[in-house]
Amino acid sequence: MADIIATLTSIYVLFGTASIIISVSLFCQAFSFFKPSVTKYKNLARISLGIALGFLAILGTLMGTKLPNGTIVNVRELAAMIAGIAGGPLAGAIAGLIGGVQRYTVGGATALSCTISTVFIGLIAGLISSKITGRFFLLKAAALGLVLESGAMGLILLLVQPFNTATNIVSQIAIPMISANTIGLTVWVYLAYSWKNKKQIKV
What is the pLDDT of residues 74-90, one digit of tens each? Predict the structure, then answer.
């Protein structure tokens, strides 16, 4: 019962942080400066978006819950995924690099694996961002979040030694982090796409 309560509490806290990341990233999308699709300075917009979401990734780490072994239960990778989908691989990689490097400086058992996963999650989200469209776009977004976060858990199992330490960490953080990051990404995609469609209809 104590483990269930702890897991639910972690999810609740992570949703609070995710809501901040979602709100600020949507606010950024209101300005053409952060929108590669509507400005002639596309690479500058991608870089700017990557930097902005990179700082949100740092916020995700800072507002996370730190475990005794240094592992941080967080939604840092949500910011990297949003950057990738909104700005492509360049924005995703920049956000992931900023968030990942800051995470590495914090230390802990998962410092290296979390750094690597954050960078690659942003990059991969950017590479397949054009696929998050069509009738089942929300299902695709949820699948993307689920696969990328599960991959991050797999990287912990691969890189953290000894293996029993890795399995103990994953058993504590997998459900809260996969749930919060996946749902957070799906909510952001829904809101971003709904807002975009409403603007197109008004035009």
Answer: 999 999 999 999 999 99
Token code pair at residue 33: 């400066």
d(CA 70, CA 122): 23
Instruction: Give me the count of residues in the chain.
Output: 203
**Residue 67 has what DSSP assignment?**
P
User: Which domain does 134 fall in, by range?
Assistant: 2-202
What is the phi-psi region of residue 108: left when phi exceeds 0, alpha when psi lies from -120 to 50, beta otherwise?
left
> What are the tokens at 123?
């990059």
Q: From residue 51, how far is each of 18, 62, 161, 180 by CA, in Å?
A: 18, 17, 32, 22
Give how many domains the chain has, as a whole number: 1
pLDDT tens per residue, range 107-159: 999 999 999 999 999 999 999 999 998 889 999 999 999 999 999 999 999 99
Tell the burial category of 112 from Cβ atoms under 10 Å away from its Cβ (0-12, 13-18, 19+). middle
d(CA 152, CA 39): 33
Q: Using alpha carbons, list the distances in angstroms from residue 150 to 84, 106, 147, 155, 173.
A: 18, 22, 5, 9, 11
| CATH code of the domain in which 73 resides | 1.10.1760
Predicted TM-score (pTM) of the model is: 0.92
**DSSP assignment letter at 161:** S
**73 backbone dihedrals φ, ψ, rounded to 5°:** -80, 115
